[in-house]
Design a protein that fits this description.
Helices cover 59% and strands 4% of the residues. It is built from 16 helices and 3 strands. The chain is globular.
């Protein structure tokens, strides 16, 4: 599906089938592709088929990269077609597992919110925020939705602002404040006969649409390409001309960290790292009708891997292992000299 295809013109059932076929051709990307297929099935109204896809992923012999995300999506989908008890049990399990990825927290919290379980939604958003953002000076781009969702639910509950709500306000860059966007009384103004109230609501909706567009404009991270020691050795043995790009593996790792820090300091959000393999890179070069020795293909290859869901967010969450594969904590490895 082209990204500019109007949603009303999409055959979601056909798109889901296409993604399932593609997953069969690229098993290394099956998880990301099948999650997209399940989303199309949900949009088509075939929620039982979407649940079947989630179950297939969870029962697969291949370990999942994001098992908590799959469970969260399954719970949200189940609740939408009447399986509330099972959905609640899965949501409790996701919360108890305390995933370090913000996406499962957002999905289960919004499932509770959508079914008017506002107190539980607030608790879930808060658990995720406290786990992922305590003592974090600069919240990763992917965690912004957690803060905004928590702000929204607390606004609906009439709760007074706390430090996390203030933090969410500082991250929000649209001209209309979060307090206005999340005002429960906004829905009343949509039925008003007062032109001034309607005009004010249209302005708020435009600001909200701008926020959604900003989020959608970056559907995957700005990714930097990473090679493991063995893969880089194989790459340079097969294509020695690329030695100019990679003088040594140590230099390669240092360049990755410095490039990401530079991008971060310039204000670029949603950064990530993708790890390449020589067979995958050769296949990409062939698809571009080019030689793997063409160094201009390297950033394109990184972008393609990120678009296929292969990116790992940078910087790693507090206490996580370093992205380089050393097995050390990031703060004791490449993050040791990270600026405060």
């Amino acid at each position: 599906m082209r990204p500019d295809t109007p949603a009303e013109n999409v055959d979601h059932t056909a798109e889901a089938a296409r993604l399932e076929r593609t997953a069969g051709l690229y098993p290394e990307d099956a998880e990301a592709l099948l999650l997209r297929a399940a989303a199309h099935l949900e949009l088509s109204g075939d929620r039982p088929a979407a649940t079947a896809l989630y179950d297939n992923l969870l029962s697969s012999s291949t370990p999942l990269e994001h098992p908590h995300l799959v469970r969260a999506l399954k719970a949200s989908n189940l609740w939408e077609y009447g399986h509330e008890a099972e959905a609640r049990a899965i949501i409790d399990g996701v919360r108890a597992a305390a995933p370090r990825d913000p996406a499962p927290w957002v999905i289960v919290a919004e499932a509770l919110e959508n079914h008017d379980e506002l107190e539980q939604a607030q608790e879930t958003f808060t658990e995720g925020v406290q786990l992922l953002l305590t003592d974090v000076a600069e919240p990763p781009y992917a965690t912004h939705t957690l803060l905004f969702g928590r702000h929204r639910v607390r606004r609906m509950l009439g709760a007074p602002h706390d430090e996390w709500d203030t933090f969410a306000d500082t991250l929000h860059s649209m001209p209309v404040s979060l307090d206005e966007l999340h005002d429960p009384k906004r829905v009343w103004s949509l039925g008003s006969d007062n032109p001034a109230e309607l005009e004010a609501e249209i302005s708020r909706l435009r600001a909200e649409l701008g926020a959604y567009r900003e989020a959608l404009s970056r559907p995957f991270p700005v990714a930097v390409l990473h090679w493991t020691t063995d893969e880089l050795t194989e790459l340079l043995t097969a294509y020695p001309s690329l030695t100019s790009e990679y003088p040594s593996h140590e230099d390669h790792l240092t360049t990755i960290e410095s490039s990401l820090r530079e991008l971060s300091s310039s204000g670029t959000p949603n950064l990530g790292i993708v790890t390449g393999t020589v067979p995958s890179y050769e296949a990409f070069a062939a698809s571009e009708l080019s030689s793997p020795e063409d160094a201009t293909l390297l950033p394109q290859y990184a972008t393609t891997l990120a678009a296929r869901g292969r990116a790992v967010a940078w910087p790693p969450q507090r206490g996580s292992v370093c992205w380089c594969g050393s097995g050390q904590a990031y703060g004791e490895c490449h993050g040791a000299e990270a600026p405060a």
